[in-house]
Amino acid sequence: MKKIFIGTKNYSFPSTWNELTKEQLLFISNLFLQKLIKQEMVVFLTIYFSGLRFEEIKRMNPLIFEQLEHQYNWIWKKLSLTKQLLPIIRRKFKKYYGPEEGFANMSYEQFIIFSETYYQAYIVNKDDDNLNKLIGSLYTSKKNTFDSDEVNIIADKLSKISPEEKMAIVFFYEGNRTLIGTRFEKLMSSGKSKTSTNHNYDFLQVIELINNGDVSKNNEIKRTNIYEIFTHLTNITNKNERSNS
Question: pTM value?
Answer without folding.
Answer: 0.87
